[in-house]
Amino acid sequence: MKLTPVHCGYLPLVDSAPLIIAQELKFAAQEGLDLVLMQQPSWSALRDKLAFGHVEMAHMLSPMPLAMSLGLSGLQAQIDALMVLSVNGTVIGVSDALSDKMQATGWVNTFDDPRATAKAIFAANPTALRIGVPFPFSMHRMLLEYWLSHDPGFQADRVEIITIPPPQMANAVRDGQLDMFCVGEPWGSVAVQQNVAALVLPGAAIWAFAPEKILGARHDWVTENTKTSHAMIRAIYKATAWLDAPQNTPLAVEILARSQHLDLPDETIDPALGGRLVTRQGTAPIQTQRLLNFHSGAANFPWRSQASWITDKLTGWHDLDRTAALTTARRCFRSDMYRDALAPLGVDMPGASDKVEGAMAHPTAVASTKGQLILGPDLFFDGALSDFGPETTPQN
Question: Are both 229 and 188 inside the same structural domain?
């Protein structure tokens, strides 16, 4: 069988695993695809490659297709989010020096207390706080600003957000460029292993079910290549289901560690996949719930309510027309295409493409095509609810 080539850009992060596994274990080939993975040095490079058609698909930060479609990031291009590749997976770290100052205030690092951690950060650092994120339009930045702005000690002019590519984050801390960072694994663990930083929170402690990476493609290409797009969704879905099985973790670590992929030691990759993170050199690993989710709880479903939450933040940053921005952004998250692609597999699908984000404190049974779907938890740390309502959902 002749395979259809698909060139897909990605960054060397643990959450690129669905793409790497789909290629290495032949899930893509089973769907008739020759998946060609093209590693990129930065998110801006990947963005430009996709916009100019040098790759057909991309492993993307969840706000990127929305920002590109709204003309906020580089060349304006209508980008579709075909599915979510991963939920959560980010970690927040501080320099060893800042960690020591925080502990001097009486703070204890339990790795699960956003309010106490923010209070300690501002108490320990009363002047400017330099924070590294991988890209301006990222869930990393959104979670950071959402979290820190809720603390009484927050002042916008005390916080400087600096863009640093993930592989360079540890060096930026060592060189004194950063006091703090939010990054995807394994690069937080790399900073700890290099003895330059301490991890203080998982991103999941701020939003328990944050869409981190998506599979993106240009809307015009998707329209012209619907069959190939459907095949890619099925291949990645199978890869995420494989990654969700604990018995497959050792092989997943071995594959990701290879020189053509992340090119890192097994012990750097294993913490994210196993959910056991060392928060500071010399301390015991902490088992972290929901650190990184590839598949369970409809993790791959591109919820339009998630697109709305992200876009609401973009609207505030850039003073956009909120109604127009929501309409554009909700078209980007292609729950319609996701449903069509997976129909032949008989996948249990949610009954709607929207939900109230932040409403589920526990795993919750919801209406679905087979009546077996469990969602949640998806809480925000402050207990907020985000309900944009289905009436603004566009028809694709």
Answer: no
pLDDT tens per residue, range 66-96: 999 999 988 889 999 999 999 999 999 999 9
- In this structure, what CATH number is given to the domain that contains residue 39? 3.40.190.10
Give me the pLDDT at residue 394, please. 45
Three-state DSSP class for residue 161? strand
Determine contact, residues 60/260, Cβ cutoff 8 Å: no
**Same-domain pairing of 217 and 169:** no
Judge contact between 338 and 301, C-beta under 8 A: yes
Chain segment 39-50, per-residue pLDDT in tens: 999 999 999 999
Contacts of 237 (CB under 8 A, 6+ apart): 83, 300, 341, 342, 345, 347
Whether residues 191 and 240 fall in one domain: no
> Do 210 and 201 touch, CB atoms closer than 8 A?
no
∠9-10-13 over CA atoms, to 5°? 175
| Cα–Cα dist 233/229, whole Å | 6
270: in domain: no
- Coil, strand or helix at 308: helix
Same domain, 11 and 37: yes
Dist. CA 97–CA 86, nearest whole Å: 32
Pairing label, strands 4-10, 180-184: unpaired
* 206's tokens: 């701020």
Judge whether 384 lies within some domain. Answer: no
Range of the domain at 141: 90-209+276-288
Query: Does a cis peptide bond (omega within 30 degrees of 0) precede residue 363?
Result: no
- Backbone angles phi and psi of 327, in degrees to 5: -65, -45
Question: DSSP letter at 167?
Answer: G
Give the number of other Cβ atoms within 10 Å of residue 370's Cβ.
9
User: What is the value of pTM for the model shown?
Assistant: 0.96
Claim to verify: residue 280 and residue 142 sit in the same structural domain: yes
Q: How many domains does the chain have?
A: 2
**What is the token pair recorded at 252?**
């997943």
